[in-house]
Design a protein that fits this description.
The protein contains 2 helices and 13 strands, in the order E-E-E-E-E-E-E-E-E-H-E-E-H-E-E. Helix content is 11%, strand content 30%. By secondary structure, it is mainly beta. The strands form 3 sheets. A 5-stranded mixed barrel has the order 2-3-5-8-7.
């Protein structure tokens, strides 16, 4: 069996399997509305954030098998050639792109890719950059440098539950407990999934990280 490793460069596939977000207006002085119409405590895993409006950048392994390139931002099997499942790439070309390897009909390499994402397909809009040359700004630390209060056992239980909730979707890339928090990597989040996590587990327990990041204008 192939071992697995997580690619984490610069920051973390389709969201088609998720249900659409429904919203409602809150009455004055009423508590904040739940983030979906799912049963209480089950918001996360039943919602899909809207696709990003502008360009985004994603980092990971571009895996091209028989001319069908995908961007894998999660786990990659360390077989030869490696194997993974990612977001289909539209407009990808290997012309002038350095840093790839080839085995049979498979070609792959690690890159930062810029384009637009509609929730299912990533349309490439710029030249890819090998990850060895990519130097992004570090994202803000949502913890403020303070440890969380959840125990390791509590976080493992939450991790198991979330893995089950996301089992039939492609938005979930991976997760791990650290310093009192459960860090969860997803393909894309505009804050919708983080709000759902806060609704279900309380603030400061699950921290959602979006693998796709908006391109600064």
């Amino acid at each position: 069996m192939s071992t697995m490793r997580l690619l984490a460069a610069g920051a973390a596939a389709s969201l088609a399997g998720l249900l659409a977000l429904s919203s409602c207006a809150a009455m004055p002085d009423a508590p904040p509305p739940a983030s979906s119409d799912a049963p209480s405590g089950e918001s996360l895993g039943s919602m899909a954030p809207a696709p990003p409006e502008g360009e985004v950048v994603g980092t990971g392994t571009v895996m091209d098998v028989d001319g069908a390139p995908e961007l894998c931002m999660g786990a990659v099997a360390e077989s030869f050639p490696p194997q993974c499942s990612g977001i289909p790439l539209e407009g990808w070309s290997w012309d002038g792109v350095d840093g790839s390897e080839t085995s049979g009909t498979t070609r792959w390499g690690a890159y930062a890719v810029t384009g637009t994402y509609d929730g299912a397909v990533f349309a490439v809009s710029g030249a890819p950059l090998p990850l060895a040359l990519y130097d992004p700004m570090a994202p803000d630390d949502p913890t403020g440098g303070e440890p969380g209060t959840a125990t390791e056992a509590e976080l493992i239980a939450v991790q198991d539950e979330l893995t089950d909730r996301f089992r039939d979707t492609a938005t979930y890339l991976g997760s791990y407990p650290d310093s009192g928090y459960l860090w969860v990597d997803v393909v894309w989040d505009d804050g919708t999934l983080q709000q759902a996590a806060d609704d279900d587990f309380g603030e400061g327990v699950v921290l959602i990280r979006s693998a796709l990041r908006a391109v600064e204008g």
